[in-house]
Amino acid sequence: MHEIELKKSIVSLMDNGILHIYLKPGAEIELSDAILIVEAMGKLGKGKRFPVLIDAGEFTSVDKEVRVFSASEESNIYTLADAIAYYSFAQKLIANFYITHNDPIVPTKAFPTKEEAIKWLETFKKP
Hints:
This protein is an alpha/beta fold.
């Protein structure tokens, strides 16, 4: 597995061909952080598109600008689909709000475990 560690996140390309974005516990993700994550995705994936697992650490928050950016074409240039793994009821509510109200341009679903998220993302891998 290859990875790039940023101040508030770790972006890695897993052996199964899924990009993994781990948001560090307690991180407050702002637009500048989201832009750095997209840049790291491009570097790790050498400009190709991949299914993406978004794995939020405990007490991570994402501001409104990030949610708008994350749903946009600009943010998803390296993304085939997004799976959001949540670990608390609050994260589930935020993930579902994002999916419903920000209308991401790529298929996006929220899951209570990383394993379920990865299983869904496997269906988007290119042969």
